[in-house]
Amino acid sequence: xxxxxxxxxxxxxxxxxxxxxxxxxxxxxxxxxxxxxxxxxxxxxxxxxxxxxxxxxxxxxxxxxxxxxxxxxxxxxxxxxxxxxxx
Length: 87
Description:
Helices cover 70% and strands 0% of the residues. It is mainly α.
């Protein structure tokens, strides 16, 4: 399979970036994929559903490569600090 079908997508994406006054350095389709996965995950969508939406066979790649969640880590840190200062 060649990358030919994706050339149109990339070209159209560059047009959208130009209209939004962004450059390819500012935003890329890959970053959009990361954001899509992370935002859905952060909103409570099950990782199995997200994995299917992005076309992964299982959740391993979705979890290890694409999901970038900081909220659980921040919450754990905040709760730990609450425990320290409340005792």
